[in-house]
Amino acid sequence: MGDGLNFDVRGRGLKLRIGLEELSKVYLHEETIPTLLDTLARLVKSDGVVKHPVIVDSNTLVVLDGMHRVAALEKLGCHYLPVCFINYKNPGVKVGCWYRAVHGGMSFGELLGLLEPLGLSVNEASPKLAQKALDRRKAVAVILFEKKCYLFGKAGGIREAYTWIRHIEKILVENGLEVSYETERDAERKIRSGEAVAVIMTPRARKEEVLEAALSGRVFAHKTTRHVVPARPMCIDVPLAWLSGDRSFAEVNTMLDKHLSKRRLKHPPFGSLFEGRRYEEELLVFE
Fold it and tell me: Side-chain half-sphere of 160: how many Cα atoms within 13 Å?
């Protein structure tokens, strides 16, 4: 991995190596959204720094978190990108998913009626059985209401499931509802509090599926995975000018090591919101 010039930190039993990697060598496992990519590229160019490292499997160079940052840096003509290398095989690294919280004034009967033309089978179940069905790939999605829960579809692969989920989202948005991406815990809290009229529970990808998607080039749909790592470094603030390729790879890695060595680490409370997003992991914030 490069020349081995990396800055090491530890968090919750996992060794984290922060360094640079050649952009052309990493693999994305999810698609990017052009509008989000363009917005992020403009923001990075305006800031003049890359704030947070991309999370990458040290063995395969598969990007686990930060697809749009990689694509934005490529769009800006960068040759290197700041990464945090982790061992994906570590059992402390988990693959979660993004639930979809549905907002708007609509009854569960009306919402189900909107989705009827899809032709998916619909069966009522308890939330516990619904989660088991998702885990066993016996349903493509589950829609949870305050007092009812429904399984949608039959057995299928992870790509098939998220193709259907995309169709469901599209229909809901076209009919005036808003869909937001939430952690499982936050989505369930919103349904209990009445902030959301429904929650779309989604299946979790498996690690081997993530690696296959990236290395084969058959990437997943946007927001298929949500990786949770034991600890995540933040705010490394790498100057954009360092990533252009004008300096050698070894030289810029050395510069990054010196840059991080001069700063101290702050540990926000576990599970706290950071820059508008809730992280279910220890944050290592460089100051």
Answer: 12
- Residue 174 tokens read as 């076209």
Question: pLDDT value at position 1?
Answer: 39
Query: Is the separation of the CB atoms in 18 and 256 below 8 Å?
Result: yes
Single out the residue of 235, 83, 247, 107 nearest to residue 177, CA to CA: 107
| Chain position carrying tokens 């299928």 | 156
* Architecture of domain 98-203 in this structure: 2-Layer Sandwich (3.30)
Question: CA 209, 224, 67: angle at the middle one, nearest 5?
Answer: 90
pLDDT of residue 280: 74
Q: Is 34 exposed, middle or buried (0-12, 13-18, 19+ CB in 10 A)?
A: exposed
Query: What angle do helix axes 158-174 and 108-115 make, rounded to 10 degrees?
Result: 120
Pairing of strands 122-124, 99-103: unpaired
pLDDT-flagged residues of the chain (< 50): 1-4
What's the Rg (C-alpha) of the chain?
20
pLDDT at 272: 72
Please give the pLDDT value at position 268: 82
CB contact at 8 A, 258 and 41? no
Residue positions counted in the chain: 287
Other Cβ atoms closer than 10 A to 47: 12
Contact residues for 71 (Cβ-Cβ < 8 A; gap 6+): 28, 32, 37
Q: Which CATH number fits domain 7-93+209-286: 3.90.1530.10, 2.60.40.1180, 3.40.50.360, 3.40.50.2300?
A: 3.90.1530.10
